[in-house]
Amino acid sequence: MEREEYLNYHRKYNREHKNKINKQSREWVRNNAKKVTENTIKWRKENPEKVKIQNHNNYIRNKEKYYARGIAQKNIKLGEKLCQRCNKRKAVERHHTDYNKPLEVELLCKKCHDEERVKL
Predict the structure, then answer these.
(1) pLDDT tens, 73-95?
(2) Cβ contacts of residue 110 below 8 Å, gap of 6+?
(3) CB-based contact 102:72 (threshold 8 Å)
(4) Whose CA is closest to 106, among 3, 61, 118, 87?
(5) Neighbouring residues of 9: CB distance < 8 A, sequence distance ≥ 6
(6) Does residue 23 register a pLDDT over 90?
(7) What is the mean pLDDT of the chain?
(8) At what angle do helices 33-46 and 18-31 cross, to 10 degrees?
(9) Is the confidence at residue 118, as pLDDT, over 90?
(10) Where are the alpha helices (DSSP H) in the chain?
(11) Using one digit for the tens of pLDDT, what is the confidence trace for 33-45?
(12) Please, are residues 85 and 91 in contact by the beta-carbon 8 Å criterion?
């Protein structure tokens, strides 16, 4: 099999099985979270210029998010408040449901905020 034929075969397979591959990838990341975190930290330390470019590109793509987060951080203090979902743990993060309303946030613990992100 020639290289181009080989690549075309795999491209076609990946297109046809995209959902299955994505599910397997997410599952692998969940099961190997520590390894993923360690590799990410290592890569970021070894590639500071690429990280800088990624951060800038994220800012350009998500200006409204950065703006809303900045407004919320300056105006809404977390203090000793409890999570607004579970009322069990200390709220350590702010969650925006609409970035066009920067002062409308839910104060959440890490666990509840992670669960919310998984839903998205």
Answers:
(1) 999 999 899 999 999 999 999 99
(2) 89, 92, 93
(3) yes
(4) 87
(5) 1
(6) yes
(7) 93
(8) 90
(9) no
(10) 3-16, 18-31, 33-46, 48-61, 63-75, 110-119
(11) 999 999 999 999 9
(12) no
Query: Residue 95 in 3-state DSSP?
Result: strand
Cβ neighbour number for residue 107 with a 10 Å cutoff: 22
- Cα–Cα dist 48/108, whole Å: 31
DSSP single-letter state for residue 82 = B
Supply the pTM of this predicted model: 0.62
CA distance 90 to 68: 22
Domain ranges of the chain: 1-47, 62-120
Q: Is the pLDDT of residue 20 over 90?
A: yes
Which pair of structure tokens corresponds to residue 119?
């839903």
